[in-house]
Amino acid sequence: MTRPGSNKWLVLCLVCIAQFMVVLDATIVNVALPSIQADLEMAENDLQWVVNAYTLIFGGFLLLGGRAGDLIGRKRVFLAGVVVFTVASLLNAVATTDTFLILARGLQGLGAALVAPAALSILTTTFDEGEDRTKALGIWAAIATGGAAVGLLLGGILVEYLSWPWIFYVNVPVGIAAFAASLRYVPESRADAEHRIFDLPGAVTVTAGLIVLVYGIVNVQEQGWTSAATLGFFAAAIVLLTAFVLIELRQRAPLVRLGVFRIRPLRAANVSMLLVASGLFAMFFFNTLYVQRVLGYSPLEAGLAFLPVTVGIGIGAGLSQPLVKRLGIRTTSTIGMTLATIGMLLLTTSDRDGSYLSDVLLGLGPVSVGMGLTFVPVTLLATSGIEGRDAGLASGLFNTSQQVGGALGLAILSTLAVDRTEDFLGGLPGAPTAADQGQALVNGFHAAYVGGAAFFLGGIVVMLTLLKRSDEAQVDTDRPLTEMAA
Asked: What is the pLDDT of residues 4-16, one digit of tens each?
């Protein structure tokens, strides 16, 4: 809860600014990659790590960041994350070698892993369950999902008119301002835990397990799903995560209380978010490639092409608030994921000689509105009714589902796209022309869009099967969800 005299809406504004930076940096580099590659003379295989280094560390440290906030103090961890993220942004901007840039991106991911779960847990402990929290989460969801689209636009503007280091420089003044204001206005809170022992073995095994898992996922496109390296990474991840579970079962003060997974709404929210993120991340990635490599857009034009996504997400998030009250969480999120599925299938009508209105915007519209309708109820489901001692843990789990889902979906759908592209080129009687190359890319993108639609459909199935109406009806009451876990 907020301390006397603190303004909860100001607190929301401050944590949303920090979260916006985190989400922004997951996509802002996409349109800058060609410039970064040329300036730092990076090899094609190394370029992916400008994105993957961020994802790898971000996904690996989220659970640790969330639990640290519960035990050490959410404001303290949040401020530490803002500092790390801001310093790392400056280091990225001044990087003169590819190795330095990749390492700095990893440090930036660590800062994000501290900021994201702490910010969400500050929000959920500041706003009581009910109408105010639903409104706050609507704003949060619009920021969290819209930031990805804004990242593409802002990245295009900065690269077009300045240079690629400015995509990192912009974080520095924003980070400093966010730190100064949060230091004064954000209230401190932490779990009322009987034991404040830090579970070091659990922290090491879960963090290492998640990092190895995400590394294996993002490396699939280069190594292949059945390569010895990929299977080795997945086997190592299983061993580490199994060891983590065994450690947590025996710990007096575990990093992750495994009993939290008995909460049905939390399970439904996290599994559905993993699937939704798998489709959403891929949608941004492949549409960015389509408008630049097929339609020939400049970085600025590519960024502007995604501006309607931000508007659509805002519309969906705004509509979701009254719909959740009238129709419920299951129905609202199902409508959202259905719209997103339709949008992804409409993207499969895109053509090598296509246009923005008929081949891009026609699909982006339903996807963006659908995501706005989905993120609010799913976030509400993942954070409502959680005991105060587990607020950071719940936030860390939710963010982990989003990041691991995004990495997994991108790896799977990239593999599908590449295979379809290579099959088309391999079936040609002679050397491919420029038109053939373009058509091959489009065919690959179509395979990815169908896969993304399948992920959204999977989210619908999870929401309808894992979430019972008795759970849904009690999400916004004061009754703890642990009473419903049986």
From this structure: 445 777 777 777 7
